[in-house]
Amino acid sequence: MCREGMLDEALEIFGILEEHHYVPDVDNYNTLILGFCKSQ
């Protein structure tokens, strides 16, 4: 999603996963950060 510019949707799903006790790893965070940086 981040690679396709769907940052809002990716962030929403990320939040839903955290609500269900999913623990994001470094790759998850890096993908989000990279997506936001590329959108600038």
Automatic annotation (TrEMBL):
Pfam families: PPR. It comes from the Eukaryota. Keywords: Repeat. Coiled coil: none annotated. This is Pentatricopeptide repeat-containing protein.
